Amino acid sequence: MSEEEKIKHLYHKYINRTCTDAELEEMFELLKKDGNIGGVRSVLRQNWEEGDSLEELSSLDWNTFLQRTNQVDREEAPAAPKMKKWLVPLSAAASLLLVLGVAAWFWMHREVITMYETRYGEVQEIVLSDDSKIRLNANSKLYWNENWQRTGRRVVRIEGEAFFEVAHRNGNPFFVKTEDLTVKVTGTSFNVTNRRNATEVFLESGEVVLELHQEDGSEGEAAKGEKSGEHSLKLIPGDQFKYSNATRKLEQKNNRTIEQAASWKTGELIYKNVPLHEVLQELTDVYGKSFVVQDSSLFEKNVDVGLPYSDWETVKKLLKFTINAEMSENENKVTIK
């Protein structure tokens, strides 16, 4: 592998945040050698313009980067007077310092991700490094950027369900992201469910803004911390919105309570006049069970029941009496007849 190919390989790893400290030092040493600064220009441009791993660096555009690293296209730059030969090494050294300075800035502002994960039937209490408190529901994953103090933005990504109590930090907005939408908050309490290609948000207290993602998965202005656009929604306590980026379908419910929208947070699964098929969907998410209903008419039967979250055997018995049907279980497959 040539030195230029090696630099490009290391830079790809750096941009994708898989570069070790030792590999970063190796890249710097290779850049110090004559002629290697310009050799990575193409890969710099490609990663800057195409990769979304630099979403936290949106304030520094490509032209600004080129100006700082003295890498502006020759055909775009005005003709410069000839320099004396003794000035050439000085110019190269200044260019190298700028490259290393910007690269070091990137490194300090990279994402440092911690992942939290729960199994079926498990709930985890989490206190983030910004003092925000999160209750992570079963069968869920949460990704948190520990480098928020340098980036200025507190960002989590959720797959599954979680209840958030966000600590107020002046100047550090908090974002919860899914493939469907971004929730922008300051200090408030809310529930986010991201399952089956849709995201549902319930606001218990405070105020949040939902930025609905476009069909291509791109984020609107509010997701970037700017002024809200036409695809944003402001929630007040009691609001519950469900949105799917895949279908572009938006559903709204008002005047909801925590028992109606996220009873799992209180240690129960409470259903009031809810169709059985919706109940079975949530039990699948929480406990990892699959259900076979032999009498299809039961699917639309409305259920009124409160189930203890932590005890599957009790859940199964109570559900059996509620729907007045026989239930049997074999290797996580529950048959209802």
Topology (elements, then pairings):
Elements: H1 3-15, H2 21-32, H3 41-50, H4 62-69, H5 87-108, E1 113-117, E2 124-127, E3 133-136, E4 141-145, H6 148-151, E5 154-165, E6 174-177, E7 181-185, E8 189-195, E9 198-205, E10 208-212, E11 232-235, E12 240-244, E13 249-253, H7 258-262, E14 268-275, H8 276-287, E15 290-293, E16 302-308, H9 312-323, E17 327-330, E18 333-336
Parallel strand pairs: 5-6, 15-18
Antiparallel strand pairs: 1-4, 2-3, 3-5, 4-5, 5-8, 6-7, 7-10, 8-9, 9-12, 10-11, 12-13, 14-16, 17-18
Helix pairs in contact: 1-2
Structural overview:
This protein is of the alpha+beta class and 337 residues long. Helix content is 29%, strand content 30%. It has 3 domains: 3-108; 113-259, Sandwich (Jelly Rolls), CATH 2.60.120; 267-336, 3-Layer(bab) Sandwich (Phage tail protein beta-alpha-beta fold). It has helices at 3-15, 21-32, 41-50, 62-69, 87-108, 148-151, 258-262, 276-287, 312-323, and strands at 113-117, 124-127, 133-136, 141-145, 154-165, 174-177, 181-185, 189-195, 198-205, 208-212, 232-235, 240-244, 249-253, 268-275, 290-293, 302-308, 327-330, 333-336. Helix 1 (3-15) crosses helix 2. The radius of gyration is 26 Å and the shape is elongated.
